[in-house]
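Late entry, written up from scratch paper. The run itself happened at the end of the previous shift, but nothing got recorded in the book at the time, so transcribing now.
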Amino acid sequence: MREERAYLVRIVTRQALDRLRALGRRKESYVGPWLPEPLLTAPDVAEDVELAESVSMAMLLVLETLQPIERAVFVLREMFSLDYDEIADVVDKSPAAGRQLAYRARAHVAARRPRGTASAAETRAALQAFQRAVETGELQSLLDVLAPDVVYLSDGGGVKHALLRPVVGVDKVARLLATGWWKRDGKRSVELVQINGGPGLLVRIDGEIDGVVAVRVENGYVTGTYHVRNPEKLSRVDRETAMTR
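Output as recorded:
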């Protein structure tokens, strides 16, 4: 059984590495910021804090900054608790090299992962306020709910209109959201949902899904907004994706 497990882990990891390298080449010519594909998740995912953080948009973006082999080692060690001998065999490295890769990846992630926390009540209140502000375009309401150093990223993949650079700072992000810059002619609706285990908004124009906004809430304020409009990445937001450890 152990040999079968090791074989399966090796095959899956190598396929994942090939996929990561292919995505890396694609991202070199990608138009604007690249965001992970959003998933519509069930509310119970958010109740498992560890699981929710591991699949959150913010954490996935941190993992994207790792080299493919570092990311593979990090996931195998931190998510699946494989020992270093197993990891070394999977990635064709010595146990010592595997330990060094794991240490470097862990330190990299620890330095960049979001620090603040928010209770369920704080998150719900912040998201509801954010939703109302986005729907109405009321500038003061946005200023009240956004953190001073809030970051806004949008991903249209060159197919839909999106901003080519991150927008940082409460004044800039608030004014941007207040204008509803992504809105084309038609009726816009905004629905509260769970995206990648965290709070988010599902945006529809004339009843059709136009995009999702994953929201990071820390200490009662919105600190990160990740707006995905690329149609190729929206295939899994019309139904919930089951997630377990």
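Residues 2-34+47-112 form one domain.
(Scratch paper discarded after transcription.)
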